[in-house]
Design brief:
about 500 residues; alpha/beta; seven-stranded mixed beta sheet; 18 helices; about 40% helix; FGGY_N
Length: about 500
């Protein structure tokens, strides 16, 4: 029976999902991938470990599917965007990959934002440079690690590294190509963009860009032996996970804002013309002549995961060892906290924020009578409030009347209702747990002719969707808390840099 393989590699977990061509998941396998934090603001991963973990997940998914690998008609990968994965001229990893949670390039970006580079960048590329952009990270490498910079042979994104491991073909897709170096109007690479950031030497290192649904290679003999895939299986270019998630959640359309509550706070809407603003990125959509307008910050459920890892580690380990879920274990605590008044507020800025690289996370309003449930509730509310900052920004430039929510927390009905109450618009979720992987799989299917195009989703999305409408009284309640959340952030803006200066100078790149 024909099937499709979607690979979805996030910042902590890489997974392989096999789907029937009607969109039904057949098998899912996951592997955690180590994050290395050698010092403050440096967040990295070993590229070979990522491939090993992904290959293991693919092999397990094939085994779990109880179907021959030859049933898989095509493969596509999606993964976290931004950050940078570098190869030397022998096409081997050039040190660790730098992840999109990394903020080592803060000083580079601050310098650009205080110069004409900022205005020139938004006019040319459709976006302000930010700390995890390839432009900023490569400029940091050029300044701080010149010998490493001189050895760069190829620059790529996470999903492009996995594609290379499958096919030995170097390249990217249109959505990923536009993270730093494309002209926002032509949607093609721009030498002027490289020159703007002082990176002209990397002109030959840019990967060729294909359509997200274009077959760009085939599974090699080596990759087939490692993963269990059939040699020669077509591999399509794939796409940035922001776009893949919106596509898989049924939110990839104009008139809708896709809200992806993952490691990053992703909020995006489609347009048929480029519209630039400092509050969002105007990047390439899947099709030429369309743009994906993204207002984002690295400040969403990574904060919730951090809380679980650091403050619930033993319970998480015992839950997973017994086949349970830490989320189910904590649900009663969180539900109880939502039922009582609370003064606790949380700014979810462990890894970044809309307020710049100097912002940091913090609880406010905590008392000795608060418990872990109150803190988790505050974390979840802070995540929703941060999404609202971005959704409100997009609403100034684009018309939309509903949101499509994806991400792990969208499985919790109470959280979905909270998002509706906070955003003040209907919020719809689908039963697709693996939205990003399905977005990649749809591109794979389109690439081999199973679907007319990536937006020809074979599912009846209406039948698998559930919508929460905002409750007027709760929206008023959350508006008061949100306004205070913003007021505290405004007051903290001149204080956050002072807090940052408490760190040793060598950790403040």
């Amino acid at each position: 029976m024909p099937s499709l393989l979607g690979i979805d590699s996030g910042l902590t977990v890489t997974k392989a999902v096999i789907f029937d061509i009607d969109g039904t998941p057949i098998a899912v396998a996951r592997r955690r991938v180590t994050q290395f934090i050698p010092k403050a603001r440096h967040i990295e991963r070993d590229m070979d470990e990522l491939w090993t973990a992904t290959a293991d997940a693919i092999a397990e998914a094939i085994s779990l599917s109880k179907r021959p690998a030859s049933d898989i008609q095509a493969v596509a990968a999606t993964a976290h965007g931004d950050g940078i994965y570098m190869l030397d001229r022998s096409r081997r990893p050039l040190g660790h990959a730098i992840l999109s949670l990394d903020s080592r390039a803060g000083a580079v970006v601050d310098r650009w934002l205080e110069s004409p580079v900022a205005d020139e960048a938004i006019e040319l590329t459709g976006q302000l440079p930010h700390v995890s952009a390839p432009s900023a990270l490569l400029a940091w490498v050029k300044e701080q690690e010149p010998s490493r910079f001189a050895e760069i042979g190829h620059i790529m994104s996470c999903k492009d590294w996995l594609r290379f491991c499958l096919t030995e073909a170097i390249g990217t897709d249109r959505t990923e190509a536009s993270t730093s170096f494309t002209n926002v109007r032509s949607q093609d690479y721009s030498q002027d963009a490289l020159k703007l950031f002082g990176l002209e030497a990397l002109a030959d290192a840019l990967p060729p860009a294909a359509r997200s649904d274009e077959v760009v290679g085939h599974v090699t003999r080596v990759a087939a032996a490692r993963t269990g895939l059939a040699e020669g299986t077509p591999v399509v270019a794939g796409l940035h996970d922001v776009t893949a998630s919106a596509l898989g959640a049924g939110g990839y359309a104009s008139g809708v804002v896709a809200v992806i509550a993952g490691t990053y706070s992703i909020n995006e809407t489609l347009s048929s013309e480029p519209r630039v603003d400092r509050r969002w990125f105007c990047r390439n959509a899947i099709a030429a002549g369309q743009w994906n307008n993204m207002s984002i910050s690295p400040a969403s459920t990574a904060n919730y995961d951090w809380f679980l890892d650091r403050l619930c580690a033993s319970e998480r380990a015992s839950s997973e060892a017994s086949g349970g879920s830490i989320h189910a274990l904590l649900a009663p605590e969180i539900d109880a906290a939502f039922e009582r008044p609370s003064t606790a507020l949380f700014h979810p800025y462990l890894f970044g924020s809309p307020y710049g690289a100097s912002a940091s996370a913090g609880f406010f309003g905590l008392g000795g009578w608060h418990d872990r449930g109150d803190m988790l509730r505050a974390v979840l509310e802070g995540i929703a409030f941060n999404h609202k900052i971005h959704v409100d920004a997009l609403s100034d430039g684009f018309a939309f009347g509903e949101a499509r929510l994806a991400g792990g927390i969208s499985r919790n009905p109470r959280v979905v209702q909270m998002f509706a109450d906070v955003l003040g618009i209907p919020v719809t979720v689908t039963e697709t747990d693996e939205a990003a992987a399905w977005g990649a799989a749809v591109c794979a299917g389109a690439g081999v002719g199973l679907y007319a195009d990536p937006q020809s989703d074979p599912r009846d999305v209406g039948k698998i969707a559930r919508t929460c409408h905002p409750d007027a009284s709760r929206s008023i309640y959350y508006r008061e808390r949100y306004d205070l959340f913003r007021e505290i952030a405004k007051a903290m803006t001149p204080i956050w840099p002072k807090i940052g200066r408490l760190a040793p100078a060598e950790s403040r790149d």
